[in-house]
Structure prediction request, 263 residues.
Amino acid sequence: MVEKQPTPLIEIHDLTVAYDKKPVLWDVDFTLPEGKLIGIVGPNGAGKSTLIKAIMGLIPMQSGYVKLFGQGLDKVRDKISYVPQRESVDWDFPTSVLDVVLMGRYHKLGLFKRPRKADKEIAMDSLRKVGMEAFSKRQISKLSGGQQQRVFLARALAQQAELYFMDEPFAGVDAATEKAIVALLKDMVSKNKTVIVVHHDLQSVRKYFDWLLMLNTRLVANGPVDQVFTNEFLEETYGGKLTLLSEVTELMKKEELPNREKK
Ligand SMILES: Nc1ncnc2c1ncn2[C@@H]1O[C@H](COP(=O)(O)OP(=O)(O)OP(=O)(O)O)[C@@H](O)[C@H]1O
Ligand SMILES: [Mg+2]
Prediction:
């Protein structure tokens, strides 16, 4: 049965991105629906972060175009929130945790306006959601890696966007926190937000995501998880890394058949 697709939230056409003339994304073409928790998987160097950066207008494209909410990025920027991959962030600046989260409010405040009480409440509430409210006054550089990651998630939440890009948000985050954050993301999606997450743990793909994009320089597959998370597409995405693949196969065999998650 062909699933009827709602109006796409994201449209990518013939996207090619190269660094030093070497293409790392090749002719990538897809649409994504709104109101879903969407995973992006693929091996290291597959171009996952590059794809998000290209969508966010942070790196030039060799060819192709991107539409978000049916429009160019500049028209819809304040509806979009981006959490970069951890290693790409400079953690050494002397700023408090609360101030980092308040940065998520700046686009709503306008330039040079001071945050109001309501903004601070939203920021504190976001910190509470990731279990970091006790650290609000701490300098960001004086947190552990997983704690910093949680603060950057809080900043994204404080932005109250419609569309979220999160590049490996669970890297270095402990299992309990990961579980709590996934519940939070599912709750956001139930309110018609769209959350796009670069993810490496194949074992949790079915549990977490409604929709999956599989990438390895080229687009391998894009669709509802139960349709595209198959051995065939996994092999195409990950090539010959068979140990990993057979582990996932075993896991999939053990799983109860219905993939539908209780919300
Ligand atoms: N600034 C850069 N200059 C040159 N090459 C780059 C640059 N950034 C990334 N690359 C290369 O582009 C390719 C895709 O990188 P990208 O960071 O998008 O991969 P990824 O899928 O996010 O990988 P990972 O799972 O390791 O985060 C890699 O081969 C990488 O070495
Ligand atoms: Mg990456």
Summary: The chain has eleven helices and nine strands. The chain has a mean pLDDT of 88. Residues 19-20, 24, 42, 44-50, 85 surround adenosine-5'-triphosphate (ligand 1) (CB under 6 Å). Strands lie at 8-19, 22-33, 37-41, 63-68, 80-83, 163-167, 194-198, 211-216, 218-224.
